[in-house]
Amino acid sequence: MELRQLEYFVAVAHERSFTLAARRLHVVQSAVSAAIAALERDLKVTLFERNAQRVVLTEAGTALLPEALAVMDAVQGARDVVDELGAGLRGSVRVGLLPGLGLIDLPAAAAEFRRRYPNVELQLRVNAEGSAGIMVALRNGDIDIGFLGVPQGSVPRELTTWELLRVPQVLAVPVGHRLARRRSVRVADLADEEFVDFPPGFGTRTLIDQIFEAAGIERQVVVEALGIENGVQFLAQGVGLGILPEYAVAGLDEVRVVPILDETFEWSLYMATLRKRKPTAALRALLGLVSTHLKQPPGTSLGAQMHQQD
Questions:
Q1: Can you tell me the distance from the alpha carbon of 39 to that of 51, in angstroms, rounded to the nearest whole number?
Q2: To the nearest 5 percent, what fractions of the chain are helix, strand and coil?
Q3: Distance in angstroms (rounded) separating the CA atoms of residues 187 and 261
């Protein structure tokens, strides 16, 4: 097994195509095919299922991918040690983002990262499937690090996480709704109401669904919005209620904030990597920058200062 073969294997796994992998690697496609064939012979397994329409990982390929990524990270780590003594950090960092993530000044963080580390390629990718989609992308090696918005204790053991913020939530009510005049509510008061929320797969949607289910309430979601800002637009038009961070609706004339007495609906914002992958120097630099660009709006609390959750 050669390092080049693993590099080509990872490229094909990411691109789901031998042609696109060859283009990414700046080699001819036959070289990629030959390297993968040699690797399969060496391991005595088939790593990809190939046909005219698609290239997908086999069970053996899926098992090999995180190990191959770990090897590539170790090689990059060795390069980092040398680069830090010479021309500075190099490599790439692919980041998975949640739609409408307003808790971090990402444009400022990205701009500062590029100024400090011009030789590192920074890629930011929004995942429309929420935290669940981010976890899948981490497992598949499509991203190096991703943001998760999920309840504490719900992150899979296969991930290493750094908690950035804890975010309690409130009931957001259109100003003309009967509950807008209430000083507070309980979960039981929300039976038979219509809600604006995020699609299944978003960590906050899962949290809210579980709490309502535990209370014996079948919640009706009439709008599945992509991102907090989009959800607030529906709320302002009176389409339904929402359970959101208070900062998202503070100061809006069309919406009233009503505390929920018996639940906080609190979730945590994490950055996460695959546990088997050792963070590169560039990745560690990004983690440090993100922590300095937290907006920390009212109603949120700073997490454990980039505390690694074990």
A1: 19
A2: 40, 25, 35
A3: 8
What size, in residues, is the chain? Answer: 310
The candidate with the shortest Cα–Cα distance to 141, out of 277, 270, 261, is: 277
Would you say residue 117 has pLDDT above 70?
yes
- Distant-in-sequence, close-in-space partners of 309: CB < 8 Å, separation ≥ 6: 155, 160, 161, 162, 163, 270
Q: Locate 106 and state its tokens.
A: 């990402």
Confidence of residue 88 (pLDDT cuts 50, 70, 90): low
Sign of CA dihedral 223, 226, 227, 229: negative
Q: What is the mean pLDDT of residues 139-161?
A: 90
Match 């990059």 to its residue by tokens: 76
SS3 280: coil
- Between CA 27 and CA 142, with CA 12 as vertex, the angle to 5 degrees is 120
* Whole-number pLDDT of residue 135: 94
Report the relative pairing of strands 145-150 and 91-97 from DSSP bridges.
parallel
The closest of 263, 270, 145 to 207, measured between CA atoms, is 263
Alpha-carbon Rg for the chain in angstroms = 23
**C-beta of residue 19 within 8 angstroms of C-beta of residue 11:** no
> What's the rounded Cα separation, in Å, for the pair 14 and 109?
26
Which residues, other chains included, contact 36 with Cβ-Cβ below 8 Å and sequence gap of 6+? Answer: 5, 8, 9, 12, 18, 47, 48
Confidence of residue 85 (pLDDT cuts 50, 70, 90): very low
Residue the block writes with tokens 């200062």 = 305
- Min mean pLDDT across 139-148, 217-226, 294-303 is at 294-303
Here the contacts of 224-227 (C-beta below 8 Å, separation 24 or greater) are: 224/197, 224/198, 224/199, 225/196, 225/197, 225/198, 226/99, 226/100, 226/128, 226/198, 226/199, 227/98, 227/99, 227/100, 227/101, 227/198
Please name the residues in contact with 241: beta carbons below 8 A apart, sequence gap of 6 or more.
171, 172, 173, 174, 177, 179, 190, 193, 194, 195, 196, 235
